[in-house]
Each structure stands twice: as C-alpha cells, then as structure tokens.
Amino acid sequence: xxxxKKYQKLMAVFVCAFCTFSALAQSTxxxxxxxxxxxxxxxxxxxxxxxxxxNENKSSADYPLIENYTLKKTRQLIITDNLELARQTxxxxxxxxxxxxxxxxxxxxxxxxxxxxxxxxxxxxxRKRLEEERIAARxxxxxxxxxxxxxxxxxxxASGQEVYVNEQQASFSSLLWTVKIGLADFIxxxxxxxxxxxxxxxxxxxxxxxxxxxxxxxxxxxxxDAHIVTLMSSGxxxxxKAAAQKTQIDSDNPxxxxxxxxxxxxxxxxxxxxxxxxxxxLAAHLLASNDKAITGSTxxxxxxxxxxALDNLHLGEAQLRAxxxxxxxxxxxxxxxxxxEFGGSILLPMAVNDKTKFGLELGVQDxxxxxxxxxxxxxxxxxxxxxxxxxxxxxxxxxK
Length: 400
Hints:
Keywords: Coiled coil, Signal. By secondary structure, the chain is α+β, with helices and mostly antiparallel strands. The chain folds into two domains: about 1-120, Serine Threonine Protein Phosphatase 5, Tetratricopeptide repeat; about 175-395, Beta Barrel (Lipocalin), CATH 2.40.128.100. About 35% of the residues lie in helices and about 40% in strands. The longest helix has about 50 residues, at about 100-150.
C-alpha cells in the first residue's frame, strides 16, 4: 500500500512538470510568432500594424518581452536614420503602456532629433534658395547689360571658355590697328658745337599693328616723317657763315632737309603684361644739306634699335603709348658716341562707332645724340637734340 502511494506521488510530480514545460514551450512559440509579426510590420513601415500587434497582446503574460523587443527594433530604426517610423513605433508602445518610461524617454529623444533635422534641412533649403536667387539676379543683370549693348553670341576661346561676342564684332579680324597722318610735324633742333638751333615744319605718317593671342601679343611700329621747311634758325658756325656770305648764300636761315623712318616689330607676353612690349627693328635718320658747315647737324646714319614700349594703354576713351629705343648703330659711327630716341602719343577720340574710332593724336619724340668731333670738322663734340611735336589725324579699329 505504501508503495502504491509513493508511485502516485511521483506520477503527480511528473504530470505537473510536464504541463509546466508544455506551457512554457507554447509561450515561447507564441512570442516568437509575435516577434515575426513585428519584424514584418517594421519591414513594411506600418506603424498602425505595430500598434495593433501591441494592443492584441496587451493582456499576455509575455507583453513585457514584446514591448522590449519593439523598443529594440525602434533603436535600430534610429541607427538607420528612419526617425519618423521610430517615433511612431515608440508612441505605439506608450499608447499601450504609458508607464513604460524607457519608451517615453526614447520618444522624447527621437522627437528632438526630428526637430533638429528639420531645422537643418530648412536652413540648407534657405541657403539653396538664396543662392538660386543670387545667381538668377546676376544672370538677369548680365542679360540686361547684353541687351543694352546689342545682340551677342557665344564664342569658345582656345582654352575652352565661352565668352559673349557682339554679332557685329564676331566677323571682325582680331588684328588691332591705328593709322595716323601728321598734318603738322614740327622739329626743334639744338646743337652744342656749333651753338645752333632751328625750327622746321614737315609732314608725318605712322601706324601701329597688333595681333593678340592668349600667350603672346605681336605688333609692329611704323613711322616716317620729312621736314622740308626751316621756319626759323639762330646761331651757327661764324666762320662758315662768313664764307657763305661771300658766295651770296643766305647764311642767316640755312635750309636743311631732315627725314627719318623706323620699322620696329614688338612682342609682349600676356602672362607678364599685355601692355609692356620688347622691341627691335631698324631706324634711319637722313640729312640733305648744303649748309652743314653752318648748322653742325649730324650726317645721315642708319641703325638697328633695341627698346621697350608701353602700348594699348587706355585712359577713359583716350589711347596712350610710349617707347624708348637705343640706336645700337651709333657704335659704328666715329662722330656719334651714343644715340637714343624717346617718344609718346595720345589719341583723343572725336567720333566712335562699332567699327572704328576717329580722333586727334598728339605726339612728341626726342632724338638725343651724344657726339664726338666730326672728321670733316663740320661740328665739334657735345650734344645734338631733335625734338618733334606732331599733330595728326588718327584712325583705329574698336576693340571691347
């Protein structure tokens, strides 16, 4: 009898344990199914489905596990920057259990993060809008300028950049030129030995041509003049004048013929300066005179020249140029120790259109000669200075 009672107790314990294990297994299976539903709801980004799942399992003994799993998935959404779904998911937990302070704290953090993100996005959008407005205003201003200047077309440069070019200018040559005709070209001559000075009148002609490119600017300076009339003179070699008077020659106003010419190519390096040119060419200074013994003028000489120039300078509408040359040929003449020439001019436009400009050009040049005594005795050493003042009509093409 005692053995039967012991056996009955063992069976009761066994049955109880079996039932408890079965219940736990069933509970585990139920929670796993709920977890899968939550995963599917989050994958489909359905906050309503999550709220429904929580509400359906609110009375379950495993609800704390379901809440914790939902909050875990919420934190993962924060990491993947899906803040809006994370906020709705945490709010679903709070709606079902307002005493879940972890969910409340998590919701507060997510809400602040969303507000900060919205503020940053709004600031970025405002910056983008302001930049678009600035670009639109600049383009409108540029368009207005182009409309004011005429019709323009887009032209690509050698470097690939696009620039606006006036359609009237598009067919123009890239050659820049200026031509001048000197209707009044005066030269004042002064020699030291003998002490003689004169003022002569003549005519002149000149031109400047330039071919610009991105790296180099090539140019050439042409000039020629002739002084055929001596307006006045003073001084001179007294002995030569006395000898001339014996032959009934007008020794008080000796007549001489001056002529000069030069052709000087130039080059400028655009990266250094578009206006500073190096130049090298040829120059000639000719003298025709029967009174050289009286005036002491330097005889004809030819010379290569080396120098620098400033060209295509603009002061408002006016165009300026200047040059300085060394006449290297002076080294080969016994009676010339050194020769240099300086000059400058300004073109004052009187009329300008789309193609050309027309105006008055004022110029000055100075030929400075440091001399030795001439072998024929016509002059001693010292200096001779020839200063020219030119009043010319200038015409050039327009560049913008």
